[in-house]
Amino acid sequence: MNYAPRPLPIPRPEPKPRPEYVARDTVFAYLCIPVCYLFVKSAPLSSPALGTAMALCFIAAFSLFYLLLSGTRPSLSARMVWLLMLTLCAGFVTNASEVLRTLLSLVLLAFLPIFAHTCCKKDFFREFSKTPLNRIADAFVTVPFAALPENIIVFIPTRKGKKSRALATIGWCLVGLVGAIIPTVIVVALLSYDAQFTSLLDKIWETLDNIFSFSNENLFEHVGDIILSCALGVGLCAVLFGNLVAARPRKKPEGTQEDTDHIPSLQVLPKPLLAAFVTPILLIYVLFFVSQWNYYVSAFTHTLPEGLTYAQYAREGFFQLCIVSVFNAVLLIILQTFMRRTPGERGVLRRTYAGIISLFTLILIATALSKMILYMDAYGMTRSRVLATWMILLLAVSFILSLIHVFCRKFPLAIGIFITCALFLLVLFLPNIDGMIADYNVDAYLSGDLSSVDVEALCDLDLAAVPALSRLEEHLLARGKLDEKSALLLEQTSAQLDRLAEWSANSADGIFDFNLPLSRAKRMLAER
Q1: Rounded to an integer, what distance in angstroms lies between the CA atom of residue 230 and that of residue 236?
Q2: Strand, helix or coil for residue 482
């Protein structure tokens, strides 16, 4: 007989418990799909203005309501993000710029998964300061999609751990109907060659359009748009619902310890390696500043270098700033995330390099801002110039906070950057920026600071420029006798106002298209 000892069995890890869902989870999951789809389908996201604001407010409020029903108490950071989202939604009604409203929609869509991710993360800002890349990946990729196969069972309602056949049948049928949307649309598009079949579908579509006001165009022109909206809607639903499910309180088996949300340490690169990597870059910065000193200092003295126009001088500064700032931000993240450190050390080397990088970046920011001010003093404001200045100031404050954090280790850098970004977003999206740009240019012309007004550039602001153009027209008419230049300006202003009045009269807006500056402009054109 063989008395050789048998090998011990290899212990297998216990299977991870599947998430448990109740009726409210199933209801919320089914509501998430049409809400996200209809929101994406309403693209461009800037119109209808009031409708987009209401949709985003509904998604934010419904997400908070679901978390409260699930027993989740949002953290302070989550409440700050949620209040910021609701406040920014007012920008759809107070801002007349379609470009800025579209940008606002994208910003708020990015805030939705961040809000859900921060609900159960009381130390979110502290961890974000240490590992920003980890937190961003968790909010948009890891958390929502890691348990996606397991979260699919939420669409099948359960009752006390046992599937109810009737509810399960309904759930599977709804899942099948959702999955059949894209194949059905493709089959309908392929069969649309038949005239009678196309006519029948057009009549059905017209009937539905009269009831729900879908669209007045042909059905088959929207096949690609429907498929794209389905894909984007399902993706948005997965990101939002995945973060919300992860934010719910989890039941732990008896005898297990609470998860501490462990983040693997990435501080693996030795200090000599990073020092050798960063030092040549800093030396290049020094040589660059020495060789280009007169070129950059001329912006502070309001003198234009020879061979350059104001536009070329300002654009070069802005694009250089963007590239260098992003590159320097990457260097700061590398130093903060990957430099090896021992417990209790002060990190003198890391802080020294971070301070020098921040200081060099602030010098570039100051020169670029001076260039942009010189540009606007010569030619006035435009939307692109205002956005460039806004970005320059945001970068300046962010790097100043980073520099403070270098010398004051207890300074909460992530909270400071969040508050800064929140204030800058409120300043950008809540006021009527396009109207302010038009008012500034007209006031500068009337006061003599600008030699002329670019009426065509103001018309790029559409209806937001109507109050300023009307004021300019009234001022020129009140002068009486005009010189040739002023007469041409009056002719251009009146022609543009007539064009805007004709366009406004032919456009029909519903209640969901309401916007305060646009409504005021249309009322002024109607009374003109």
Answers
A1: 10
A2: coil
Residue keyed to tokens 């990729």: 141
Cβ neighbour number for residue 80 with a 10 Å cutoff: 19
Pull the structure tokens for residue 135: 């937190």
Whether residue 1 has pLDDT greater than 90? no
Which structure tokens are listed for 21?
A: 């869902």
CB neighbourhood size of 146 (10 A): 13
Number of other residues whose CB lies within 10 A of the CB of residue 272 = 9
Fill in the DSSP letter of residue 192: G
As a whole number of angstroms, the distance between CA 134 and CA 265 comes to: 10
pLDDT-derived band at 433, boundaries 50, 70, 90: very high
Which among 413, 373, 418 is positioned nearest to 394, based on CA atoms?
A: 418
For tokens 């990957």, name the residue: 338
Q: How confident is the model at residue 522 (pLDDT cuts 50, 70, 90)?
A: confident
- CA 370 – CA 362 distance, rounded (Å): 12
Answer yes or no: is pLDDT of 4 > 60: no
Distances (CA, A) of 483 to 446, 478, 486, 489: 15, 13, 5, 10
The Cα 528–Cα 522 span in angstroms is 10
Residue 347's region, left for phi above 0, alpha for psi from -120 to 50, else beta, is left
